[in-house]
Amino acid sequence: MSFTDEAWERTAHLRAAIDDCRFLRELGDGTLDPGVFRHYLEQDEIYLAGYGRALSLLASRAPDVASAAFWASSAHGAAVVETALHGDLLGSGALPPADGPAHASPTTLGYVSYLVATAATAPYPVAAAAVLPCFWVYADVARRLARSATAVLDAGADHPYARWVAAYDAEEFHTSVATARRLVDEAAEGLGDVRALHEAFATATRYEFLFWETALHREDWPSPLAAPAPA
Amino acid sequence: MSFTDEAWERTAHLRAAIDDCRFLRELGDGTLDPGVFRHYLEQDEIYLAGYGRALSLLASRAPDVASAAFWASSAHGAAVVETALHGDLLGSGALPPADGPAHASPTTLGYVSYLVATAATAPYPVAAAAVLPCFWVYADVARRLARSATAVLDAGADHPYARWVAAYDAEEFHTSVATARRLVDEAAEGLGDVRALHEAFATATRYEFLFWETALHREDWPSPLAAPAPA
Amino acid sequence: MSFTDEAWERTAHLRAAIDDCRFLRELGDGTLDPGVFRHYLEQDEIYLAGYGRALSLLASRAPDVASAAFWASSAHGAAVVETALHGDLLGSGALPPADGPAHASPTTLGYVSYLVATAATAPYPVAAAAVLPCFWVYADVARRLARSATAVLDAGADHPYARWVAAYDAEEFHTSVATARRLVDEAAEGLGDVRALHEAFATATRYEFLFWETALHREDWPSPLAAPAPA
Amino acid sequence: MSFTDEAWERTAHLRAAIDDCRFLRELGDGTLDPGVFRHYLEQDEIYLAGYGRALSLLASRAPDVASAAFWASSAHGAAVVETALHGDLLGSGALPPADGPAHASPTTLGYVSYLVATAATAPYPVAAAAVLPCFWVYADVARRLARSATAVLDAGADHPYARWVAAYDAEEFHTSVATARRLVDEAAEGLGDVRALHEAFATATRYEFLFWETALHREDWPSPLAAPAPA
Q1: A195 close contact with D: CB closer than 8 A
Q2: Burial class (CB in 10 A: 0-12, 13-18, 19+), A170
Q3: Can you name the CATH fold of C3-96+134-216?
């Protein structure tokens, strides 16, 4: 069995939790609070900026030019998604206005820092395994929603939730997932010990689950960065 | 006012929370559950390994040889603390045995990843501001405990809590804090805009607070990395 | 005057040397030894692999998502040039076969290492200034050759030298140069001291000159890496 | 045979060239032009600043805390050598005054950039192999000179050449070499393919040879960075 097939199997319990999470169920049936979806998009915007950094670091350390080209192109893609899809959805008028400037939640800061730190200091195969779930889990979720989320999809292609599903179920995105998987499998090949790769893949998959879970509850820090203003 | 003086003032509410946190109060009066202290040391060991990486990255990007030498020496020091102080305390027989292999809590993984990611990708002055609270807050807490924690200190220099206080109140550690502050102030000098430095300093200070807070409650992940074994 | 305008002026003597170098004069009038051109392409292939790494590191440290996206896209572009233009030219049959596996000349290894090292450890504005000459000098040379190299261009669009000129005089490449200049000027803005940026720009421009100069003479190392095989 | 034993054997021809180079022969018999030795120390000062960066990057990516501690401590050591030994020798009055501000020669810039670039982007075992020759070749040369350079050593322990020999033949430095070798051998263990490690080791060894060779001839760039001032 390939490394990625095995990593996928080993994280089945985390994907079951993802499939079952209220955020995605409500997104699929169209009942998700638009304020929650805006909060999610704001967190995702912060995430994608850091994810792009992680992919660029990975590109800088890739073993060959073709792998480097794929990760660099994906880094560019992360920025494009942010400015295109997010700008589009946030500016569409279908979502409530922002509460104020967004700041990273504990889970967002933890996830994105974990990926950048791993891409900066862990061996390339471990770093490649860490960035894979963001590709794969999104494509997997979007594919499933494209089949099941009839309520939202029937509401019209303009509905922000429908556009989100369409973006991540795009054929081109599934092709990227296949390439990312192949590069991770190539990196894993010939390694005697892939435990660190499995740990990185599972850690990132768990963060994927927590990202939706904490977006739903608008997770915040127990203490603000700045002291509360005097009344 | 120097940058670090201002950063210290701006985070007074976080330090008040630190001074008031149960972990430190109980450590000071000797009532802290030894199992909690062991858990804290295990998390700190994971933390120090990553903190050393962050300091080494900072050293690699320092503006001059003297600054690079200080950060590199501190990276070496982080490893020495881990193997000396921790090995000493964990192996002293005064603490209960380990429950099993330690894994990073959400806060530990978030904090250490944040420092490594910042040291790898943020401008040098921001990265220097991010690593400073770990020096300064520890020295500050230890100095205060050295005065107030009479219960623990009277119990004898061999008590693990007394040794912990002594290690971080050592004169040599206070000298390191002064050097780290000076390097951060030098890096901040001449910058028109120090908002990112303040944010980094406050973010790390908040993580310092959360580190003790979550150690006390033995914070864990809502989902394990591996599926639970069948009963 | 913008930083890049001034950096361009300050390196006029290096560009005069470039314009006057025999490699480019002979490329323009079609008399360049095809074996030399193959050697140059082999060195450029090694260079572009490293240049892509430098651009990816720069992307990982860019101050905002739009800048990161440009450098990441350029890193992808460096790989595409290598596999497309180079593969095309080297495989065209118009050039003599390879002598054996290519290895980096002292100048190629020095230049590409300088860019990667600078992108990894110098402040972002310095690193951005270091990668700029490769964009700008190539576009400048190609534009001038597109006007003057009538001998080669009249020989037909299939001539490898004509294709090389066309690739770097493409409108899309000139647009990239303009964006790269803008990003460097934005990074230089507000810095009190831009001496390190000027030094990086001039160092890379000098390497550009030496790259052609040493390709012409097929520069090699005074000592091989491996001991000479016994006769 | 261990990786480092084999790497040492494979580079015997480069070490023969080092042993035979005029710089070291003249240093050993005390006839080396003091102006050349000053030029060498100036280049070495530039080199050590970058070497420290490379060692810090290596520390940030080391597989365990003990290895990280060694590289970080060596990074600190590189800075100490620079400020202590160099300051001492350059300020001793035994060498002629500086000609003006020093700038990196092509070989110095190439070598130090190669090490930093390798430590930033190559796999850890390759980067560890690249920094090893600077430890090992220096200790080897100093040990041999300590035995053969009677002319210089008899001139008294204050002679700058004698102090240089003593510094690198110190027992503590030989211990560092042994540790560095052990870490490289551990990193090489279990790798199926060590070709990239051999190439890195040989490339750095060749740069060691060229460093002395080009110091002797005060190698300079064919074109200055700045335009010559008008007469």
Answers
A1: no
A2: middle
A3: Heme Oxygenase; Chain A (1.20.910)
